[in-house]
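Here is one chain, start to finish.
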Amino acid sequence: MRNLELKVAVEAGAFEEIVRRARKLGASVTVSQVDTYFAVPSGRLKLREISEGSNRRAELIGYSRPNEEGARWSEYYRADFRPEQIAPLIAMMKQTIGVRTVVSKEREVVVTGRTRIHLDQVEGLGRFVELETVVGEEPGDSGADQELADVAGMLGLYDHPVVAGSYSDLIEPGGEA
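Its structure:
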């Protein structure tokens, strides 16, 4: 799958206004996520544990995306896991390839059109808004750039600093936006 992404860092006061605007665009769901990033030679590989109320599940996500400011394309693959598979999978991955870092966050997700709005409060890092406009596997972007720009404009994201890397880059010692 492919998507076009944009991530910005947002101060507390401005974050609440963006949340208000986002909620007007669609229904939202709030989840807790723990992303365990594994040490891989290229791209990124993370196991995302997702808790929504009493429901728990996990996704293994492999992706590659350039660390550059602004909207950027990402290619990703996902595999779903049941709750009882999570601990053995983490143990296996720790033993064989090692853990790079762990990122914990509260995420409110709003979907409008093909764009997922992630309203993130990341432990140890602060507040961020991330847009992901999904285009699937076809080579063309089918207007993804315009949709992402429109949503970013409606939310007022261009007034905030753009983040080039992933949360894993920021949380590691010496990590930079």
